[in-house]
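Box 3.1 A note on notation
Throughout this textbook, protein chains are presented in two layers. The first layer is the amino acid sequence; the second is a token string describing backbone geometry. Keep the layers aligned when reading.
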Amino acid sequence: YLSQYFSCTIVDNRGGTAGCLDSAAYSSIVFGNTDDEGNTSNWSFVREPERMFYCCTVPLPSDGTNIATNPQFVGGAHGYRLKYSSPCVDAGQNGGWMLDGTDLDGQARIFNAKTDIGAYEFTMNTRVRCLLQGGYRQAPGLRGVQSTAGGSTGQDSPYAADRRRAEVDPSNTTDWVLLELLETNHMSVIATKSALVHTDGVVVNTGNGDDVRLECRPGFYYLVTKHRNHLASMTPEPLAYTNEIVTYDFTTGPEKYHGGTNACVELEPGVWGLIAGDADGDGKITDVDREIVKRQMGKTGYLSGDINLDGVVSGEDAP
């Protein structure tokens, strides 16, 4: 072979020979290249039969893993990154260096369990803001914020659905939350991620960045925020996961919740949050939750009965 290409984007070149000449290419985009006369000239194999696998190019190579359609680049400042509708999304080949590899932006090559074709991985980040009634504190005459949890949140997520460890000290956060994406037809969970919520309500990833990656194919999904002793919140309509960043703020009004005023609580005028009191995490506030608080009364630490998140279970925690 003259060369081998892995997860490359070779496009919009013009020259006397093909963009991929007598070379092996894997998970690469070789598209829009022309010869000196303006004719399509993406690849040419001289010594052996076609050697392209999981590539996007024309004409279509013989191996059945390839595609011959427009890769749909975003263009502009984003250059040769993929649009959400690109056929190259989740169409590449896993394995080898891909398992620990990153793209040119430093993003993990395998997102949503499958790598993309080309030099850039299409990823989507969720930026969400939510407030917890239990931890909310309002100083006289000032806008309230959530307290830093009195019982240490610890570096490990308490949620079995996504065991995760904080990369930085989480002591300046209020608590762990669990983000989920639900598909629209059957409401089944298709993505789950443990994250931390700051005192101002901004949900951050385990590295303290405000982009939380929920792995999913481009599409429309309900966003859910869960907490270990609050009722969960869900968007009233599916969100469009078709951009690199999806932003949502649960704090601005009851219309941001599925169920409206029945699904949230007004913490102060114009500020809304998740309802506290679901100590057993079953999605309801019942006598069972009150019994949990009663049994843990007087204890300190990271406890489900600590409804107001001050580190000790007391009479103030009764739901």
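The radius of gyration is 25 Å. DSSP finds one helix and 23 strands in the chain.
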